[in-house]
Amino acid sequence: MNARILLTLFFMLLLCADLFGQITLDECQQRARENYPLVKQFQLISQSTNLSLENASRNYWPQTSLFSAISYQSAVTSLPIEIPGLNVPTLSKDQYQVNLEASQLIWDGGKVDAQKKQIRISGELEQKQLEADLYQIKSRINELYFGILLFEEQLANNLLLQEELNRNLRRVKEYLKFGIATERDVQELSVMLLEIKQQEDKFISSRNAYLDMLEKFIGIPLPQGISMPNSIPPPQNNSFFRRPEFISLNTSELKLDVERKLADAKILPVINLFARIGYGRPGLDLLKDDFSFYYVGGIRLTWNISALYTFQNDKKMIETARRNLIIAKSVFQFNEDLKLMRLKREWLNQMELLRKDDEIIELRSSICRSSESKLKNGVIDVTDLLKDLTDENMARRNKSYHQIQLLYTLYQMKYVTNE
N or C: fewer beta carbons within 10 Å in the chain? Predict the structure, then answer.
């Protein structure tokens, strides 16, 4: 195998290593989401919801309570008559009670079920709100990623201009030997070359700052580079129903439905089975002034009438919150409509600019070649050539900017519609 084949294979391996080392925009967004500290809250929300559901379910377990009291009263029940030969016992004014009661819920009007639904929907709402917060990372990654691409394109154009200036500088130095150019012409080119190198330093510094921020987001050092995203079609609809923010608002509305059911359940009575054992003086037999054991069992109905005091206001508050949600959804859709409208106009404008960029670059290149020929023949000076070179470089930079800006606009439109 000859040296030329070996050299070709070596460069092919380098090219493959570079391609496989690049990271895509989708990979950056996925890694940024996984690395963002907020994502750890998903597990905490799930754990908290499960614990709250367990606590709510335990309302169906038998409930026990222990009650004890020592009291002294000024009077006790006594018979107002005296019967000869019969000693009627009198109760002591100091009394002692220890009671242990167990109750089992039979019916609560759906209160526990409503509480469990409220816990589930609250946990779901927290997760949807967290999704909405994490979704905003996509926009920030888009800004950093396309910012890096823009600086890299500007660097590439800058290096092309440096090559062009160096080529003309060498040519002018040759012209200087034959008296066609002057020392000032050489200085003009040298100064411009230094200024272009200063721009290169600025581009490198800005690109590295963006790279540092992107690495911080994704949590790993960037590989060889980033790849230019594929062009995507503009969104086909203006729907925002798939946006996490909109889904979160819909979940908030479902939560209000559950809160309304819970409010209805709170005004209904509760039925329990109960059993109580106790020890004290007096016991159940009030004619015995001795310590004794006793027990009581039965069914109990409890109705918290005071819940009716705030029932109407609770319903009004829920309806007010519902109207606020409707307004919030309208505001969100209005703002996103405006944003999408602006992005579509930018996209159409960038498409039109790109159509003309190639023609402008072709004309600018032709002008530069003509200026180089005129400089050689002494028709123009170096200042005129520098202006033409600068104009050509600016035309190339404008095209690069328009291409990247067009892609950025398309991906921002994708972000707005979540397609």
Answer: N
Residue with tokens 């319903």: 315
Provide the angle, in degrees to the nearest 10, between the axes of the packed helices 244-266 and 111-177: 170
Q: How far is CA 226 from the centre of its chain?
A: 24
CA distance 158 to 147: 16
When comparing pLDDT for 5 and 236, which is higher? 236
Distance CA 21, CA 217 (A): 18
- Summarize pLDDT for 94-119 with one digit per residue, the tens: 899 999 999 999 999 899 999 999 99
Which residues lie across from 292 on neighbouring strands? 280
Decide: 253 and 318 in contact? Cβ < 8 Å: no
Q: Is the peptide bond before 282 cis (omega within 30 degrees of 0)?
A: yes
Q: For the purposes of burial, counting CB atoms within 10 Å of the CB of 92, is it exposed (0-12), middle (13-18) or buried (19 or more)?
A: middle
> Cα separations (Å) of 270 from 55, 63, 103, 305, 340?
19, 14, 12, 11, 54
Tell me the pairing of strands 63-72 and 94-107. Answer: antiparallel
Could you tell me the strand order of the sheet in which 292-302 lies? 63-72, 94-107, 270-281, 292-302
Using DSSP's 3-state secondary structure scheme, residue 268 falls into coil
Q: Which residue from 410, 415, 407, 416 is spatially nearest to 150, judged by alpha carbons? A: 407
**Pairing outcome for strands 94-107 and 22-23:** unpaired
For 30-89, the pLDDT digits (tens) are 999 999 998 988 899 999 999 999 999 998 899 999 999 999 988 887 766 666 766 667
Q: How much is the average pLDDT of 379-397?
A: 78
CB count within 10 Å of CB 281 equals 15
CB hemisphere CA count around 93 (13 angstroms): 4
Q: How many helices (H) and strands (E) does the chain have?
A: 8, 6
Phi and psi angles of residue 303, each rounded to the nearest 5 degrees, phi first: -135, 115
Instruction: Give the residue from 397, 368, 391, 396 showing the smallest Cα distance to 171.
Output: 368
Pairwise CA distance, residues 151 & 156, whole Å: 9
Q: What is the CA radius of gyration of the chain?
A: 41
